[in-house]
Write a structure and sequence with these properties.
3% of the residues lie in helices and 45% in strands. With 673 residues, the chain is mostly beta strands. The strands form eleven sheets. Strands 35, 37, 38, 41, 46, 47, 48 and 52 form an eight-stranded antiparallel β-sheet that branches. A hairpin with a 7-residue loop joins strand 7 and strand 8.
Length: 673
């Protein structure tokens, strides 16, 4: 049994240590060096480690082989008292056998009812437990199940903060709780139990310590890397909060600063260009951060300068223009185009190769300004003036007509074999294509001339056909020179007007809700981005003509509807597609014109789509995503090609012998300058 005289002496010594100020973060350290069997209250550790016990817990804790152990229900406290109620309690737990329980405690009262937080290992439950004990009993706040290895040693830390209580094992957080019902500073110590432990069994503790929180500093705001801010402001905070701070600024270059008191929101004024390192250290509870937080930055207040190295000057006879320009490495650009005449443009992000199309006649000024990586904006943009004076090609697409435009390709179905024009018949068998010599489209061609014949082409798909899907189309998927050419290729920066007349015969399933394509301006192969949804397509389903595009200029199997208008079986419908081809959604555009009532124009309700400014070509992707042996490199625009016929979901019923057909006639493609 413990003697009263011993208790008085121990308490007196403990009170003396409790009021002695400590200069370091270590409040308690004890490696339990001593004679086996020594009662813990008769042992003194290295720092703040004169031990007393709680009267409600009668079990003795004793030394054994440089560790401490105890039978169930012992509770001892070290004499060192932390300066605040936020501190860490640590110990090494050595496994003699998996029996009993032992833990480290904090914020504990030294007498009366229980009031403490504890981190322990409990053999009865087979887990690490974060526990709160109060007068009403003990509650496991969080736990982590683990079977301990006999003979092993585990580093245990109970981190006590107002914001959270955490239990770490071997540096890994195993349990956490935001409970903060117990707020006194209290004492740190050791509690044994429940379960039986002996000098040779159960769990023994070593290297017990209590540490005040080490001060840490975080920079929360302020420049990093390049900046054009010559009066930078830095914000920072301490962990735990409530610290005081010192700051210093080294620079420019090798110039060294000195530490001085500061507070968050610290500002430096009028720094010269050069590199700097800002440092800040916090002091919390008398402990100063030994590893100050730092932020390295470079002040660059010199604006960039841009040079236009290509693009039109003087008078040009085309209605498109593109400009090349350079500035310092890493700069980004904004461009604007003023004109024609006094019309003023607005700056927008751009890159070298910026192009403009559909320019009206008149005078223009192109301007470009750079922003460097430090954020400096060029104050005097580079400019280039030019005049557009275009004569010749004009569009009157409301009347489905162009004048003086270059005809690139045409098919009026006069030739029985379409392959010399289209490159290939992509049907299950070539006979799925038919030239019908009477009953063709009666519309004029794109330049107003008569077709000169009555023939048309019919393409038919039958259930079970499989030419890379259930299809019958004209066109060949090829963009390389030296190979069989397709009917028409569409390339970056080109503006083309494509005319086409289509008729949906009675065996065409117009009411279907499944996808059913009749015209594609599709990305070509070989290309790593040659598959997926066509970049532009016209389909016929749900009683409508449906103009759609792919969901992205990159590889995708998704699409989106741009516009639709009513369709009908049995009548020739004339289309004109005015398209500027580009992989960029700010430079491409498409507008559709259609004669729905066969009156020779596209001026009636529902006969013109809006002009959609959007991408109209695909962008080549990295070969690793969808490898193909092709000459295109990542970022190139993938040329598209024209194909027409029928290509649809094979669930659509097209039984033999009639199948499902489309009819095409009067196709022309014109170049628009």
């Amino acid at each position: 049994m413990r003697g009263k005289a011993t208790l008085v002496a121990v308490l007196a010594a403990a009170l003396t240590l409790a009021i002695a100020p400590g200069a370091s973060a270590a409040v308690v350290t004890d490696s339990f060096t001593g004679t086996n069997g020594t009662l813990l209250e008769n042992h003194t550790g290295e720092t703040g480690a004169i031990w007393t016990w709680h009267a409600n817990y009668p079990a003795d804790l004793k030394l054994q082989d440089g560790r401490v152990w105890g039978p169930e229900w012992g509770l001892y406290f070290a004499s060192g008292i932390p300066a605040t109620n936020e501190y860490d309690v640590r110990a090494d737990l050595h496994v003699k056998s998996n029996a009993g329980a032992i833990g480290i405690v904090g914020r504990s009262l030294t007498s009366g009812a229980d009031s403490l937080y504890m981190g322990r290992y409990n053999a009865g439950t087979g887990r690490w437990e974060l526990v709160k004990c109060v007068s009403a009993g003990c509650e496991v706040l969080a736990f982590y199940s683990q079977t301990l290895t006999v003979g092993a040693t585990y580093a245990v830390r109970l981190e006590i903060r107002n914001a959270a209580k955490k239990l770490f094992v071997d540096g890994i957080q195993r349990a956490s709780s935001t409970d903060n019902a117990i707020t006194q500073v209290g004492r740190a110590g050791i509690r044994s139990g429940p379960g039986v432990t002996t000098a040779t069994t159960g769990y023994h503790l070593d290297n017990f310590s209590v540490d005040a929180p080490s001060a840490d500093t975080n920079i929360t705001a302020g420049p990093s890397g390049l900046t054009n801010d010559a009066t930078p402001t830095f914000s920072f905070a301490s962990v735990p909060s409530g610290g005081t701070f010192e700051c210093k600024l080294d620079g420019p270059g090798t110039t060294l600063g000195t530490w001085a008191a500061c507070s968050s929101g610290h500002t430096y004024s009028t720094l010269s260009n050069g590199s700097y390192t800002f440092s800040v250290r916090a002091t919390v509870g008398g402990v100063t951060d030994s590893t100050p937080a730092t932020r390295t930055f470079t002040v660059d207040a010199i604006p960039p300068d841009t040079t236009i190295n290509s693009g039109p000057t003087g008078t040009i006879t085309t209605n498109s223009a593109s400009f090349g320009f350079t500035s310092e490495a890493g700069a980004t650009f904004q461009c604007k185009l003023d004109g024609p005449g006094t019309t003023t443009g607005t700056y927008a992000a751009c890159a070298t190769g910026q192009s403009y199309s559909n320019l009206a006649n008149g005078t223009y000024t192109f301007s470009v300004r750079a922003t460097d990586t430090a954020g400096n904006v060029e104050p005097s943009p580079a400019t280039r003036a030019f005049t557009v004076n275009v004569t010749g090609c004009t569009l009157n697409l409301g009347a489905l007509d162009v004048d003086n435009c270059t005809l690139l390709k045409a098919d009026n179905a006069s030739a029985a074999d379409p392959e010399p024009l289209w490159g290939n018949i992509e049907c299950e068998v070539d006979s799925r294509h038919q030239q019908v010599t009477t009953g063709g489209d009666t519309h004029a061609t794109g330049d107003g001339a008569a077709q000169g014949n009555t023939a048309f082409r019919r393409m038919t798909a039958i259930d079970g056909d499989d030419f890379s899907g259930e299809r019958c189309e004209l066109g060949i998927n090829e963009h390389r020179t030296g190979f069989t050419p397709t009917f028409q290729l569409y390339r970056e920066g080109e503006r083309r007007v494509t005319f086409m007349s289509m008729r949906l015969p009675s065996n065409f399933p117009l009411s279907t809700t499944d996808w059913q394509v009749v015209m594609q301006m599709k990305q070509t192969q070989p290309a790593d981005n040659g598959n997926g949804t066509p970049v532009v397509e016209l389909s016929a389903s749900q009683g409508h003509w449906r103009l759609a595009q792919s969901g992205s200029p990159l590889l995708t199997s998704t699409g989106r509807l741009l516009w639709d208008t009513p369709a009908a079986n049995g009548i020739w419908t004339r289309f004109a597609f005015d398209v500027t081809y580009s992989q960029y959604d700010t430079q491409g555009s498409i507008k559709a014109y259609v004669d729905l009532n066969n009156d020779g124009d596209a001026l009636d309700t529902g006969e013109q789509s809006p002009t959609f400014t959007t991408y109209t070509l695909k962008r080549e992707i990295a070969a690793a995503q969808s490898p193909d042996n092709d000459p295109l490199v990542e970022g190139d625009s993938v040329p598209s090609h024209l194909r027409t016929g029928i290509y649809h979901n094979p669930v659509i019923s097209c039984p033999a012998p009639s199948g499902c057909s489309t009819e095409v006639d009067n196709v022309q493609v014109y170049a628009v300058p």
